[in-house]
């Protein structure tokens, strides 16, 4: 796209440079002829034509020296304004041609220098014209003398020059406009083709990622099956350790299962995942009453890099609650809230976890502390633990890793 824009800009710049250079050559030559003709004509002053030729020569010198068409355009626009205004204000004539030169200069300025220069030049020209019409036009009409054949020839010559200038400016304007239109159509077509290709690649990538998540989930299930087979040959304490490992692997397997089942891999449904995780853990622990689960998720865009450590962290918290908190609780409750950090918006979030269990002394500190600490550090966060009241309350400040 940048290359296309560059091509258009280069063409536009070339057209403007070409306009300035060609008009300078054209006016320098033809206005020299008009100047010579007017030197012997008592009804026309050669002074404006002489200044116009001098301006063209100056412009040619500057453009060959600097290659800066905008600088030359600005010089010619300003000098033409003064030449035209001088003709209006100091030459006693009807000024049939002077307004035409004014129009040529306005068109030239708009095309070469743009609106910021064109509007002031236009306003200045018309202010001078209005002043001439109000204060000087009637006096000049009175002073008009009959035209001779030479006068008519001069008029035709100057009108031809003006006509050519207007036609040349308009032709270059049409050329650049048509080029811009063709470039726009081609760019839109290329963008459309690129969007189709990107859409196709995204669809293929989505399918591939779903397949990867599906295979990872199957592999994790194989691992859990092997761990269960191994745990059958262990005594009670060792078997319990294997079960905890199985629960952690299962937590990751559920993540990948939800990802390949999701309609959009970029929008992971945390709330649905947490409910599935609790159901999975309840199958492995004999609890008289299923705890009421309160889940509040307000993190709109949870990054994929954060999902696995967050899942393992919540899995560990749930394990602790299910194993150690509800043995004497008639109405067990677990609350999980994920809220965006307003200060950092989508870059950080808060995890609030609490249960209403009856914990034994020091049991909170003795189970899963290392994993909770490790997952918090992996998420570049910190946490606070409150056991002063009923149950446990955790407050985590975590990063949403890109």
Report a brief summary of the structure.
70% of the residues lie in helices and 10% in strands. The chain has helices at 2-39, 47-66, 69-90, 98-113, 115-142, 149-231, 236-261, 270-282, 304-324, 363-366, 369-378; strands at 292-297, 333-341, 345-355, 382-386, 392-399.
Task: Summarize this structure as a short list of keywords or feature phrases.
alpha+beta
Q: Can you tell me about this structure?
A:
This protein is an alpha+beta fold and 402 residues long. Helix content is 70%, strand content 10%. It contains eleven helices and five strands. It has helices at 2-39, 47-66, 69-90, 98-113, 115-142, 149-231, 236-261, 270-282, 304-324, 363-366, 369-378; strands spanning 292-297, 333-341, 345-355, 382-386, 392-399. Strands 1-2-3-5-4 form a five-stranded mixed beta sheet, covered by helices on one side. A hairpin with a 3-residue loop joins strand 2 and strand 3 (345-355). Helix 3 (69-90) packs parallel to helix 5 (115-142). The protein is rod-shaped and about 125 Å long. It starts with a helix and ends with a strand. The mean pLDDT is 80.
